[in-house]
Structures are given as C-alpha cells and as structure tokens.
Amino acid sequence: MKKRIKPILCILSCMIWAACSSTKGLKPGEILYTGAEVKINPDSSVKITDQKEVKSTLESKTRPEPNKSILGVKYKLGFYNLAGEPTKPKGFRHWLRTKMGEPPVLLSQVKIPYNNAVLKSYLISQGYLQSDVMGDTVVKGKKGKAVYTANTGIRYKINSVSFPSDSSGALAKIVNNNKGKTLLKVGNNYNLDVFKNERIRIDNDLKESGYFYFSPDYLILQVDSTVGKQLVDIRIRVKEIAPDASLKPYTINNINIYPNYTIRRDSALRKSTPTVYNDFNIYDPKHTFKDPLFNRLVFFKKNELYNRKDHSQTLNRLVNIGVFQTVKAEFVPLDSFKNDQLDLNIFLTPLKKNSLTFSVTGTSKSNNFMGSEAKITQTTRNLFRGAEQLDVSVSGGFETQVGGQSQGLNSFSLTGEAKLTFPRFITPFRGINSTNAYIPKTIASLSYQRLHRGYLYDINSFKAEYGYKWNENQYKEHAFNPISVNYVTSSLTNDTTLRDSLLNVIPGLRNVIEKQFIIGSNYSFTYTNQFEDYKKNNIYFNATLETGGNVWGLFSSKNSDGKNAIFGLPINQFVRVETDFRDYLKLTKNVIWANRIDLGYGYAYGNQTSLPFVRQFFAGGTNDIRAWAARSIGPGTYYYKNDPKAANTTYVDQSGDIKALISSELRFKLAGRLYGALFVDAGNVWLRKEDMGTPATADSPGTPPRPGSGFDFKNALSQFAVGTGAGLRVDASIFVIRLDVAFPVRKPYNEPGERWVFNQIAFGDSGWRSENLVYNIGIGYPF
C-alpha cells in the first residue's frame, strides 16, 4: 500500500506546485490576469445601500473571468502547466492539458472600455442615473488585475406613478382597476427590472380579461428625471403603434379537440364528423378516449372571455396526464381579426400504448434498503380509455461498502410491483375534485420485495396500498394512502452458532423471525423548488406520518398468545414520523453547498415495545453516515464490538426508534462531467427506552442488556457519530456514478472525553486505514 501512496503523493505535490507556480508557462511580455476589483465612491463621502452586494455584482459582470481557483489555488491552470506542450494530438498529456486544464487568462484580453460601459449600464438600471465608471490596470511582476472606480451619485427614487386615464377605453379601465397591485411604489428606488416586471403584471391582468393579442412590448414607461432632488415621475402608457387586435378582448367560440392527431391524418380528421359533448367538438372517429375525460382537462367554455389562467391550466393538465406525446393549443381568430371571437383547436398526439423503460436510481427506502437500484418498467397507457396507466416493474438493487468495519458484506434486493393510476379522485364521496393545473391521481399498487442481507437473514415483504396523490401547486405535493397492508415473513441464517450470536447482540432481530402484519395508513408532504435552477438557494422538504394498527386495532381480538390479531395474525401498532430537509446553496456557478437534516421518531404500543424491524431507523451506509458500515452505529453509545458476547461477530444490524442525521457536503466541478466533493456526516439512532435485556426462560435463552442504547435529549448531541471524507462523481446526466471515501473523527461508543479521534488519524498506517477507511460505491447523489 505504501508503494501506491508514494506516487500518488508525488503527483499531488506536483499538481499543487504547478498550480502555485501559475506564471511559469507565460511567454515574455505576457501578464496573468488575476481578476477585477471594483471601488465604489472611493473619493466621496457618499455611501450606498448594500455596497458589498453591489460591489460583488459589478465584479461578476466584468469579462473575461480569471482562471478558476479553489482556496486561491488555480488548479485548472496547474493541470495545464503540469501537462506541458503535448507532442501528440491524443494521449494522457493532451487529455490533461485540454480537458482538465485551461490556458492562462491574460491581462491583454481585458477590454476596459467595454467593461466600463457594462458596469455603468447596470448602475443606471439600478437607479444611479448620474453614475460613471473608469477602469485601469495594475501590474505587479507577471500578474495584473483590473481596477474599476465607480462614482455612483445619489440613487433616484420614485416620486409619482400615473396610469392611463379611465376615459381612454375599456383596456385603460382594467389597468386602473388593478393599479393597487402595482410594483411601482412611491418612495421606492428606481429599478429597471421592476419596470419590466410591472409591464408583465399589467399584461397578465389584461390576458385574464380576454386581451389575447396584447403584449408587454405595447406598454411604455415614460420616466421624467427633471423633477429634481433625485426623484422621477413615471407615466405608464399604451404605445400608439399597438395593433387594433391587441386593444380588444376576445371570447371563445368553438372548442375543437383532436385526441388522436397526426400530421398525416390532419385533413381526414378535420373533415370527419365530431362528437358533440358539452361545449366540445371531439374529432375522434376511433373513440380512443372517453368523452368525459376532457371535462377534467380543458377549462375553457364556449362564449366565455379568453383568460390566461384557463389557458395555462389546460396545457398543464394535458401535458401532465402522461398519455400525450405532443400537445398544441391553437387560437384562430374569426374573420381575420375583424371579429372578436377565437376558435380553439387542441391537437393531441398520443404516446404509444405500450412502452418499456429502464432506469437507474440512487436510493430505495423500501424495507430500509438504501443503495443503488436498476429498474425495468412495462407501461400500458389509456388502459380503460380514461387515461389510466398501468406500470409493471421489476427492479434489483445493491448496497456495498468496502473497507473499514464493513467486512465486505453486501445487501441485495429484488422487487416486483404493479401500479394502476387513475387521473382523478376515486372516493366514496362525490364532488371531490381538483380545479388547479395539476391532475389528482388515485393509485392502487401491489408489490413484493425480497431483501437478502448476505449470510445473515432474508426478508420477504408483500405490500398492497390504495391512496391518492395530488399537487397543491408546483411546489407542494401530497400523498395519502388510507389503506396500506404489509405482510412480512423473514428467516435468519441456518448457522445456529451465528444465529445465537446475532440474537444476543441484536434483540430486535427476533422480530425478523416472526411473521409481521402491518395494516394502517400513511401520509407524505413534499415541498421543493429545485426545478428553479435560476435561484441561488434551493430547498427540499419531506415529512411522512405512518400509523399501524391504530384503527384496525379496534377490530382485533386476542389470539392464543394473548396478542391483538386479525385473522389470527398479530398486528403491529405504532406511530412513525420522519422529516427530511435539504438545502442547496450555489456559492458560485460550479460550487454547491448541500446540507441535510433527517429526523425520525417512532412509538410502538400494543403487541410490541419497539417498531417493527422493517420500520425501524438505521444509521451508517452509502447514503447516511458514510464513515461507518450500514446499520452498524448505535443505538446510542452501545457498540456491539465492546460487548463480550459479540466480540467475534463480524457484522450486525443495529436499529432504533429515534434517529437524527446531519450531513454537509461541498460539491464542485473539476472538469467536464467529473465532480468532486468534501463532506461531513453526523448522527445516531436510539431506542426510546434503554434495552435492559430479558431473563432466560425454559423456552428462551434471554437477551443481554445494551447499556447506553436509550434516548436522553440532554445527552443526544454528545452521542453523535461524526465522519468525514471526500468523493468523486461522474455525472452522465442520466445517472451519477459516485465513489466516496470516508473515515470517522468522532466515535460515540468511546468513553466521554475520548470520543473525538483526530489524534488517532494516520493515513500512513496500514492498520489504521484497514480499520477506518470506508469506500462507498453508489449511483446517484447521497442526498
């Protein structure tokens, strides 16, 4: 191993040296450009609001950008210099220089007059109407930077806002009726972005009132800056060049729907006889879809004013229902704009009825299996002519860690599932429907999963669910399954010695032997704005509530063992809550700081004193605390290797009723599709009450206690396991291949005062590496 480490260290040292010696490859007379500095009002007592933010924004708008760096080290330039001039148009040196590296950005590439104009334009757009920018260069040795001096003057504010007179027509009346919603407030700063958004706001109001052909470009905001005292008057007017068609509202005439449209059949479909259903003319000679379906998809009604809300909701539902390949809404004016009516033609091209898809995902939480999974899905669309969808899938997953205390034990899962989705609410109560842009769904599913935990145990899980999924808006999703039935059978290893050892160390595994019947309900809420890539900060939040046997317990009876049972099978009664919050902060274009907090709590009663094994919480693994093997942490300060009865046990599952996990990860782009990461994970699991063990009886050998396994809020933080490490990821767009290397820095099972183990870190010690370094292999990001 030492023979491998030496050349790696040598290469890393060369890279750092080359990066630090960033000017060594420059030709005579060339100056390395190190970036731009903006000074705001350096010779004036004028101070502007948010000066640091304005300074940062101005510096980001200068061009060119200097060579990329991390912590001041221009690593890509270092790769470029390290490779040198390649002698061949291919090979390692060529790849290192052209793919991993980048050539030096020179001071001669900086266009000072151009940047002066860009910065001045931005300041004017923000209300600094008297601003001026002067740029110059500063050279020190072989490095140089650009320095821009911005004299902003006083920022202008809005003195008054006037709208078109009510007497100038119906359009002006609508604008005035909605002026209370204006973004232009007296006393606010002059801001060109706000002016643009105000035009869009007015256009939206007009679109809601039938002005189909109006556009924000037909509005002009006249600004008078001669008022004095750094104030401006704003007059909003409709341009004289606005066409007549944009100045009148339109109503909907005929609504023609072509549900089985292709360009090849265009002429034949238009000439066919439509089915008249409510306000729709449906051109579907083959009766591909049932007519009532379009009541839930098309929001327009005959003779009503056109409005953008109905337009957007109609398109969103038609696209999101999942049976159409293309969706096109065509509004055709009658009589070449002379009339004030529009015919609406909706052209829909269905997807193939049957399709086969292959997908790779990063995690699967079913039965607490968390690893990488490959899935093949057969989809049948429009099953009953009402846009129903049947998905039949088979998937296989794996979870693997190498090194550390994982001992090379892998987990495998095999899952089969059939899921039938109806694009509507199906309930015993009438009148329940959704009127927003998102289609509610009723989902019935049946699945089987086999989880194989190496030589330890196997779990067979049969699950049936019936429930609903709907979107409150584009950010919020709800899922409610009032009926969820899970029947679990399991088996431990046939090795009696190992079997007894495992049962001594993990009393919860006794539940694996027993058949488990979980019947209850679950609800999940998800909020995310991750699709808004333009935002600097994105978040994801998920909360789930699951109950088992609460209602059904009322119908249970005692079986021969004195346990609450239905059909002779003992039922599990519990409440389980889990929340998962994630935050993704874009520090720069290619650097993201990702953070996660995962909290879980379970309360069991009735037949059990702890959650069913398949509903318990675990810590460690490829998507959890990566410095430990999966399921090897806790509960609390208990550590199986410190237990004399478990000294020879190589791998065990520890679980709990309570969980806390915190992860922080810095993700950055290295080159092309290669990304790097630095991360810290912390957390643990606990039992609600410390496991005091059970005494031996004639039928059972009993179980030893697990000291330190109980949850104590005051001491919970001091019992956190902490691991850190680094990773490489190849982002192939379709999926991400991930390799993370982690090691522990805090061990909760050590004595108090000895839990931080920074002083024990020894990368050069093969024994330490063997005991502590853990290699995590997976697909997808950990969170």
Describe the 3D structure:
This protein is of the alpha+beta class and about 775 residues long. The protein is built from 12 helices and 30 strands. The strands form 5 sheets. Strands 14-15-16-17-18-19-20-24-25-26-27-28-29-30 form a 14-stranded antiparallel β-barrel. It has a 5-stranded mixed beta sheet with strand order 8-9-7-11-10, with helices on one face. Strands 1-3-2 form a 3-stranded mixed beta sheet. Strand 5 (about 220-230) and strand 6 form a beta hairpin. The longest helix is centred in the first third of the chain and has 19 residues, at about 1-20. The chain is globular. Mean pLDDT is about 85; it is low at about 1-10 and about 365-370.
Identify the CATH architecture of the largest domain. Answer: Beta Barrel
Main sheet specs: 14 strands, antiparallel, barrel
Shape: globular
The proportion of residues in beta strands is 35-45%
Give the proportion of residues in helices: 10-25%
Oligomer: single chain
How many DSSP helices?
A: 12
Under CATH, the homologous superfamily of the largest domain reads membrane protein fhac: a member of the omp85/tpsb transporter family
Strand order of the largest sheet: 14-15-16-17-18-19-20-24-25-26-27-28-29-30
Q: Work out the count of structural domains.
A: 3
